[in-house]
């Protein structure tokens, strides 16, 4: 149902009465949940959204979203838990077990066939036709799919475990999963299928031995033996090991290679290291973009930057195609239109098994601190304070306090000076102490000409607000370890805008980074690393010492995350947050 993207109709916050009804419906549908579980699933005081969507086939579905993660969905007045909920409460539904390769088919929109069901020693779960059930893989109790039983357990056994068993509605890695935080499944040991997994692995090893004894290995159907792979000679493990030994002896073999060859070698190193130390079987199928962003970038050595566009491959898809055809390390498949996933990894590949992970203490920080030069101090946002300067019109009001025109004051100081002036001149109304009588100086400083004959007294709050309004606004920036900087006017917010270029192409532009002490080059590199899109620095029209960062595509959401999370810039100093892409996009 969710193998393709869906269209959002509405997104609203749930009402109190609907929240109570939902909790009651969940308790009825899933009686194994305790009262504490229900309170966690539908909390009383936290925001819970009701999102109404249309699936790609036109089905009307209601999602219940907590903390931006769908926890339940309702179809034809029946409630179903999402995989996110089942990972927290795996005991909620009767669960069928299958092999990991079958999960790839389910993610592509197929139903679970009974020949693909693994029957543990305790037997298959007892279900009736139409019952909600889950699907998990061998050795992990975390469910990977949700659906309904097409027949009862008795009918399944009577048919000899043949035919369609579960009509799958939602799976890990589908569009409903992608609507949440896109976290991976946890690893929950499954005692019932440990023996089954061992038997399956032994059979696999025997099959591999038979294939080896038979002589030639059966070629991969996607393999092209004679097709040359760009830079494959430079990417051999032997060359890389020789380079490592050369470094130990004081030589630098990278000087003998072009920058493109060096990037090819770094790309292969990060690829092999990610497969060997990061990716788990339970994560498959894995989006190729997630594999690059989460796993490969984190394996990049400190002091280096992984950039596919500087390699001979230019694109991730071309590199993975080479790894599939020439090395037979992975199998990549397009599970949905335009979206490729790694569906299989050859863990027994000699090249992968012989790869040695390089020791680099800063390897985990490389992806996070990209764009930060060696030895550069970490960025700390400035402390911003709003100040007020005495204007020429208000100078008589501040004369007794010996504050002349241009004196910069804190709001609290202005309030104290005005209060002292009022009390010293006995201007507090005796009948109502909430009001201040207007004398000639206050009249000239704070009132408009049309109010001269009408206004005789002002409330205290009105008096203070009028005084601040008539003063000149200033702001003070305090960077760590530097003296305060005071400037006139309001502080300029970081401006994020999206512009069109050519036919349906967009670029995101960020201005005023220098105001907050941010290096536009560092921000540009960090964004380029995050979104894998080209960026550039362009001069701001009408300004000599400022530049704007320009990056391809509508990247407002990623820019906001970078500024808010990494650089800790307060949201009120960022302008243009409403330009981000709506999720999901409407069909054209």
TrEMBL record:
<dbReference type="GO" id="GO:0001731">
    <property type="term" value="P:formation of translation preinitiation complex"/>
</dbReference>
<dbReference type="Pfam" id="PF01253">
    <property type="entry name" value="SUI1"/>
</dbReference>
<dbReference type="InterPro" id="IPR036877">
    <property type="entry name" value="SUI1_dom_sf"/>
</dbReference>
<dbReference type="InterPro" id="IPR004521">
    <property type="entry name" value="Uncharacterised_CHP00451"/>
</dbReference>
<dbReference type="InterPro" id="IPR048248">
    <property type="entry name" value="PUA_eIF2d-like"/>
</dbReference>
<dbReference type="InterPro" id="IPR058886">
    <property type="entry name" value="SWIB_eIF2D"/>
</dbReference>
<dbReference type="InterPro" id="IPR039757">
    <property type="entry name" value="EIF2D"/>
</dbReference>
<dbReference type="Pfam" id="PF26291">
    <property type="entry name" value="SWIB_eIF2D"/>
</dbReference>
<feature type="region of interest" description="Disordered">
    <location>
        <begin position="183"/>
        <end position="259"/>
    </location>
</feature>
<feature type="compositionally biased region" description="Basic and acidic residues">
    <location>
        <begin position="237"/>
        <end position="248"/>
    </location>
</feature>
<feature type="domain" description="DM2">
    <location>
        <begin position="383"/>
        <end position="470"/>
    </location>
</feature>
<keyword id="KW-0648">Protein biosynthesis</keyword>
<dbReference type="InterPro" id="IPR041366">
    <property type="entry name" value="Pre-PUA"/>
</dbReference>
<feature type="domain" description="SUI1">
    <location>
        <begin position="494"/>
        <end position="567"/>
    </location>
</feature>
<keyword id="KW-0963">Cytoplasm</keyword>
<dbReference type="Pfam" id="PF17832">
    <property type="entry name" value="Pre-PUA"/>
</dbReference>
<dbReference type="InterPro" id="IPR039759">
    <property type="entry name" value="eIF2D_SUI1"/>
</dbReference>
<dbReference type="InterPro" id="IPR015947">
    <property type="entry name" value="PUA-like_sf"/>
</dbReference>
<dbReference type="InterPro" id="IPR036885">
    <property type="entry name" value="SWIB_MDM2_dom_sf"/>
</dbReference>
<dbReference type="InterPro" id="IPR003121">
    <property type="entry name" value="SWIB_MDM2_domain"/>
</dbReference>
<protein>
    <submittedName>
        <fullName>Eukaryotic translation initiation factor 2D</fullName>
    </submittedName>
</protein>
<comment type="similarity">
    <text>Belongs to the eIF2D family.</text>
</comment>
<dbReference type="InterPro" id="IPR057429">
    <property type="entry name" value="WH_eIF2D"/>
</dbReference>
<dbReference type="GO" id="GO:0003723">
    <property type="term" value="F:RNA binding"/>
</dbReference>
<feature type="compositionally biased region" description="Acidic residues">
    <location>
        <begin position="191"/>
        <end position="219"/>
    </location>
</feature>
<dbReference type="GO" id="GO:0003743">
    <property type="term" value="F:translation initiation factor activity"/>
</dbReference>
<dbReference type="InterPro" id="IPR048247">
    <property type="entry name" value="eIF2D_N"/>
</dbReference>
<keyword id="KW-0396">Initiation factor</keyword>
<dbReference type="InterPro" id="IPR001950">
    <property type="entry name" value="SUI1"/>
</dbReference>
<dbReference type="Pfam" id="PF25304">
    <property type="entry name" value="WHD_eIF2D"/>
</dbReference>
<dbReference type="GO" id="GO:0005737">
    <property type="term" value="C:cytoplasm"/>
</dbReference>
<dbReference type="Pfam" id="PF26292">
    <property type="entry name" value="PUA_elF2D"/>
</dbReference>
